[in-house]
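Consider a protein example.
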Amino acid sequence: MIAAMVWSTAAVLLLTSTPGPQRTIASKQFDPQAVAADAASIFWITGNAIMQSRLAKGSPSRLVFSPWAKALVIDQRRVYWRTTTGSYYDEQKRERKQIAAIWSVPRAGGKPTMLAQVGDIGASWFAIDADRAYWIGEDGISAVPLSGGSIQVLVPKRITFDLVVAGPEMYWREYSGKGEAIFSCSTKGGEPTLVAAVPDGIASLLVSRGEVFWTTQAGKLMRSPGASKDAAQLAAEAPLLRALAADSGSIYGLSDCCTLVRVPRAGGALERLYSSDLPVAAIALTEQAACASG
């Protein structure tokens, strides 16, 4: 199943992985920003809150109040998100300030914990593994333990985008002298390794099952088995796919802002699964947390 959030009407939809009907999880959700899901539950950012619902006949409820939330990830125990600097109105204390930080809260709800104050740069680029949270900021790529503690700068002073953590490696894109490029590095830090040079520019980045996928600004969906390996084009036409996600057989993405499409991992024709009259904000696979938000 695929969870999709639609802008303007701001409905959270549950779609099948083949063309067919959809189920509305929630409607009238203000200013949607991100969505994350697994086999049991779905979480999303709307307005000044992190929302949640059970996938099986659940009702939407607010998990935690959090203004200016931008990015969202989950694990089996907790929900993690990143906020930017901003102000909001509190009826009791009037105007209040929200700092740019990474937060977490138990999936059952409770008081949020601030893991690190991180700044506003790269607000959407944020990831976790079993031990740490990673983000792009003014100092480069940094990490902090999920339990809290000292911040470690892993890759200093690089202009990076689209951070993805997969196993013991992290991946990102950055500008080079000849367009853009994808790099990788150990999650412990170290010297970055070039994965692929992409003169056409990169629209979206995904790492799944040891393979690196990306879409180019020229409308190509590409796959590479690893660093400096030959890349293969998967679809003859993949117009600016963003918000890539994957399962064992397919790559999913958003095309032309309003259409959910699928391409076989081995390559082939692009299949359109769902179209909306309004832009789709984000997608997430319910079977696994293997998505990168655009």
